[in-house]
Amino acid sequence: MGYRVAVVGATGNVGREMLNILEEVKFPVDKIHAIASRNSIGVEVEFGDRILKCQDIAQFDFSTVDVVLMSVSGAFAKEWAPRIGAAGPIVIDNSSAFRMDPDVPLIVPEVNPDDCEWADRKNIIANPNCSTIQLVVALKPLHDAARIKRVVVSTYQSVSGAGKEGMDELFDQTKNVFVLGATPPKKFPKQIAFNVIPFIGEFQDDGYTDEEHKMWNETHKMLDPDIALTVTCVRVPVMVGHSEAVNIEFHEHLDEDEARDILREAPGVIVIDKRDPTGYMTPKEAQGDFSVFVSRIRNDPTLEHGLNIWVVSDNLRKGAALNAVQIAELLHQRGLIRQKALA
Questions:
Q1: Structure pTM?
Q2: CATH homologous superfamily for 3-127+321-333?
Q3: pLDDT tens-digit profile of 158-179?
Q4: Is 222 helix (H, G, I), strand (E, B) or coil?
């Protein structure tokens, strides 16, 4: 018997991708509902060969479903996720609202699957930040092998991480820059077409942004609080796909050949690492794929035990929708979804 599933935020980029991936992986669904705010009532979204009309979240009875995948703003999630969880279903939330809540597991299935066992504390599981997900998938097997001491990350994050408005702004500015000049920025603080912006989120008192804080806080919660991690997050004129340049210092010896072999065997990772002009992965090539790709694996000669790697993934898939669906699959495999009796 399959599950009754609701996708909240079904009209957004990630919500639509959640519907696509649920169908792609053949998650056992008996009935599915597309849920959105009142402004999107009746908007049509696709689930396989079916068309779903969005229902109003305020009018929907969540006690009739087993699993809720949620992709909404943090403020919206704070209001609705506890109410939905209290009605009975398990909520897998893609926002930042509950990631650091000590009673809410923050999960990447390849990294910390056992944490799903205590999801019943609030009936909420948090989906990590898109850049954190691909980072910890690559770091986990290396940490298990040689214990990571310190990580320095520079991200190259696509505009889809800022939603449809970000993608539209890049498209419009790129189209217009050779005609009337780039359109003024609205979603981003500066022009994104033919440019990079070393700022994502909001500045904090220490000079880092909340996006940068998320990456080290979430890595500490899921992987190891003793890893020293510093981050610079950069928005780049790429539609889909985040990239990261990662410098790793280990407590123990691990050379590039050992790391390459370890990563080749790691769940969720594909190594593309040939030393020729095309022997690495780019975000364009990762678009539409489920995997985290690792390239440019090489020793860092400035450290006693150091490596540099290049990490790429589709931020709408593994960085958001796919990871949420994989959490649902994990719950299914472990028998942790409480099913309602079908009427």
A1: 0.95
A2: NAD(P)-binding Rossmann-like Domain (3.40.50.720)
A3: 999 999 999 999 999 999 998 8
A4: helix
